[in-house]
Amino acid sequence: MTDDAHNSQPDDSPELRQLYQGFADQSLIPLWTQLGDLMPEHPKPKAIPYVWRWADLLPLAEASGRLVPVGRGGERRAIGLANPGLAPHAYISPTLWCAIQYLGPRETAPEHRHAQNAFRFVVEGEGVWTVVDGDPVRMSRGDLLLTPGWRFHGHQNTLEAPMAWIDGLDIPFSQQMDVGFFEFGADEVSTRETPILSRSERLWAHPGLRPLSSLESSVSSPLAAFRWQHTDRALTEQLDLEKEGYPGTFDPGHAAIRFVNPSNGGDVMPTIRCEFHRLRAGGQTENRQEVGSTVFQVFNGRGVAIIDGVSHSLETGDLFTIPSWVPWSLQAETQFDLFRFSDAPIMERLGFMRQDVVKE
Amino acid sequence: MTDDAHNSQPDDSPELRQLYQGFADQSLIPLWTQLGDLMPEHPKPKAIPYVWRWADLLPLAEASGRLVPVGRGGERRAIGLANPGLAPHAYISPTLWCAIQYLGPRETAPEHRHAQNAFRFVVEGEGVWTVVDGDPVRMSRGDLLLTPGWRFHGHQNTLEAPMAWIDGLDIPFSQQMDVGFFEFGADEVSTRETPILSRSERLWAHPGLRPLSSLESSVSSPLAAFRWQHTDRALTEQLDLEKEGYPGTFDPGHAAIRFVNPSNGGDVMPTIRCEFHRLRAGGQTENRQEVGSTVFQVFNGRGVAIIDGVSHSLETGDLFTIPSWVPWSLQAETQFDLFRFSDAPIMERLGFMRQDVVKE
Amino acid sequence: MTDDAHNSQPDDSPELRQLYQGFADQSLIPLWTQLGDLMPEHPKPKAIPYVWRWADLLPLAEASGRLVPVGRGGERRAIGLANPGLAPHAYISPTLWCAIQYLGPRETAPEHRHAQNAFRFVVEGEGVWTVVDGDPVRMSRGDLLLTPGWRFHGHQNTLEAPMAWIDGLDIPFSQQMDVGFFEFGADEVSTRETPILSRSERLWAHPGLRPLSSLESSVSSPLAAFRWQHTDRALTEQLDLEKEGYPGTFDPGHAAIRFVNPSNGGDVMPTIRCEFHRLRAGGQTENRQEVGSTVFQVFNGRGVAIIDGVSHSLETGDLFTIPSWVPWSLQAETQFDLFRFSDAPIMERLGFMRQDVVKE
Amino acid sequence: MTDDAHNSQPDDSPELRQLYQGFADQSLIPLWTQLGDLMPEHPKPKAIPYVWRWADLLPLAEASGRLVPVGRGGERRAIGLANPGLAPHAYISPTLWCAIQYLGPRETAPEHRHAQNAFRFVVEGEGVWTVVDGDPVRMSRGDLLLTPGWRFHGHQNTLEAPMAWIDGLDIPFSQQMDVGFFEFGADEVSTRETPILSRSERLWAHPGLRPLSSLESSVSSPLAAFRWQHTDRALTEQLDLEKEGYPGTFDPGHAAIRFVNPSNGGDVMPTIRCEFHRLRAGGQTENRQEVGSTVFQVFNGRGVAIIDGVSHSLETGDLFTIPSWVPWSLQAETQFDLFRFSDAPIMERLGFMRQDVVKE
Q1: pTM to 2 decimal places
Q2: Which of A122, B204, B251, C286 is 20 to 30 A from residue C81's alpha carbon, by CA?
Q3: Chain B: closest CA distance from residue A241 (Å)
């Protein structure tokens, strides 16, 4: 709706003022004074497109490692990426929370559980195991690790070197919609085992196979870890197939996979979609806009994100967010690998998804 | 999480202040300073339980009818029930918007459409037709009328008497999640026909039958009107069956129906659940708490709502809202009829629903 | 596959005969001797199109009423329509069983239950109640009554006049696929009540409403009776809408409804689809072919069925079956009302459905 | 139903004979003369439990290789396992067809497609590629290869040695239900490429990942090959987890996986379920009965199948079938590996599945 259309207000008068006072007395607010804000012509997010540089984040995480203990109460040494448009909240978007988490040498983050869905994605480092409902899950570069709602989880660093990674959760959605529950667990992780593969992978990470002991569709993925070697290979194969003349890539020169719940082929968690994208050097995506908000982290390579017409040069570790309905495209200088997560399952499950290719 | 648990913060120091300044400079906010707020032990809504009296609402709506024109721009003479805990927003809950809408004699509200899902429920009056994508839908006492997302709709009052009703929409959800689209339609309603039954009812309001021309499951109900005669009869039958010794009621003395999408038996719209409840005189419900927010309007009779331990006497037309996880029960002095709507489909589709019976 | 293509067999020789004897000794049959039969170019049903005349059926049913008792053991005085192509089986098609059932004055058919799904459709008469799991369901002209698998059921005739109706079951499917279970119940019906409406209708026959006490999707319809008044009205409205210029009919001049499970909008039972079709006088359908078999009964009016190019004149009560992939169309001399049932849910759920409009 | 219960027939008389003649004249068959056969107390399959020995099958297949050409018309050198209870049909069960197929050195089986769903399972050998809609799929020991309905497929043997494997199809179901379509394709396979991995695996065989270019749920699995290395590892992990004290096996000492459609986690094809079972040496399963028919092939090891109380000693390659509702259990002398397929998806999708553990 244009601003003009919303400027037609009733003429001021003592009676109108009395009416408005009556509204205020009775906890009422008329629609006609705020329609344009309540019902815009298209999504007008308060969140803004924004880029965080890994080169800025990591030193601050390291400083936190020195100054801030991790333990019961604070629970996690996690530093949230706060979208400036959503101040004073630590929200990267209206639905998503994203943080860099840092665990010093030999440190442990105690166990707890919450209704919020969470994942971790590792852009560098190794040595940490996250223990999810008693199952120790190794965290290594390129891996996606899930902690769906209401699973106890804690982390331990088994090495003398610190490790940092990113966390993604649906905290803003949960907080605004009043759906959160939280419970403390053990002060230490419940197992110190450090297997290469979690039990969830030993049961579920076999392509096209499921254990006969677990035949129901589950709300969230029973597979807790998605390993870089599989992701990398899937993307490589798509680009190879394209070179050989077969379908497989998402767009020309643009390979992409979605991480899915192997019990039903749907999203890994009911509120968060996770994907991985790879562009050939020199490639670029179409200029798209979608309902819902998204976050990318560069995993490898160099390129440019053009968001709402503004170009941002990107390097490994850089994170950026794109609010709802803001047009964006990617350009690759080198082979360009990006991890992506979004709130698309919320939009799709509630019937609000729209997407469009924007012509210049 | 207890407050104490959240009081363990790092010791103040110049280095810590420098770190926090670094966070601020880089649009970062640490988790450990706000965990209790971000991840409470259970939902801690800002919204509060609140009751609006029909005896207060209606005169203000009538005064608006005199002072505020309805037409292009303002679009609707709708007065939103604003939860005091959510000020300055006109939200009755974090997801739901609820208003009393008022149309004067012979007035017309112009057509528009929006991604937001809407319904109207009529507690008194008659004479208005809402035109939904060209289908004129009569609005009479006790009827539930749907305007699912992105359908053009306008209203016309065909009588010399004014009419008021309540509107329910998912505006707060849409606004916070950035999913709204809006488009103006015709300045007048696109048809002046005033049939007893809408075309949607002529196709879909036959129990257990669907037209062979429309076999897909649709996101929202293709049936646009749910008539009081059917609702009343369904509730009467449940109580009669109970008297005869058969199952049918929801709780003893408590009949209840859900309004559903006849194409799939699910909720009428993807974000809003609509129900009707009837208690026998003297009856009462269990004390329940549920994730998600809800609104009731008394349609008939007298009774009491006990919300979070506080009793509220209620009469016809009174509206009240119950935020997420707040315990509530109802007691009936007379036969007690209540219309209810809620955001339960959001909670269920996203895996957040929990419900519990609270023992005193 | 053409016959020629299948005539290429290995040259006869003593070694080949010895090989074939070896096959026989080891319970083996080679594919190459019978491929054309096993895997035809398109469905080549043994069942044939066939018409049974009500004028022939009813007198035989009446004679049975005099000569054949109904009671424990025989269970039902039901006379199956046996497709001549499927002799010696009493199958109307490879999946469906259809019979005329006859109950004399004041007679009772004892209770039993079976895994097979059943319905009754009433082309004339009244006075019988079928008792389904203790719920007495009135049977009157034009009504469709369900007995989904494993529900106890018996019938009683409350009048001094006999009554006949048709039964439809998935007996041939069950028998060939080895899925049948059967259990005797009470020798008399478990209730002699004769209410106008069954309890299933009192709970479920309210358009767009479902009881809050029953929110799950059920395998078969919880609504046991679909009344003629609703069916007739739904068809009338579709033709009226067409006259007014609105969508609603299935084809021009051809109104049609599907009977559905109100808990999910799908077919009333997992193996049997039920529909009702009405053609305007002078109207005709397209010439269609579909995978799966179907049965029609003329309910009212006169017309012609053209099946595989052969015309059959039809009157009230006449029944006809169309095997898989056989082209058919209907022509109406008067307004022409037909009840239809088929095995389409089997075909759709197992991915075998195909349908086509056949141009002459 | 007991036989006695069904012996109560009307008394013979001239009138009854006339009535029965009338039935015959009008293509009618009364229910009361055949109820026990049509509606048994529980499934009474004509199919019988039966064992085929690999030691018998393979020489006959080899003899066929010498005497019977493979080519257009006969299409395949496949020898069907014909259940003696279902003579004269080449059905292993009422729904399933199972054959040993044999391809001589350098031979090719021409391309065709059919509505019937098919798979191949390889108990020994290598060197054949099956080409499915142009995608060459290697066939090696332990692999399961799919050819869902209506995909063109042919086979070529690239080696100087012959190869044999088993085929499983839903031919009996398709033939009896009249759902089959067939079309000839190229006389030669459409590609002579012999890659280690098919294109379907390169796109889909990555655990928990799906290509973004293919997001819909498909009727049958888009993954055409399930490799032995994955199956073996999944079974090994289950038994290891059991040893470590964690859940994972289906029964104690009994590991099992289901082959699934990675687009939705359901069965690989709409009519056929495929599984792999492994028992520890000395282990045994419970004695179960299920609705529907099944076929096992021993892949490795020695053991015993006890079917309806009769013990059958089994070795590698042996095949056996268990009809509907017949109790069975397995005992392992050595580690005992078995491939299994069944019609369970038919039973489940149509609401007929029942299963029970039978106590001795």
Answers
A1: 0.96
A2: C286
A3: 36
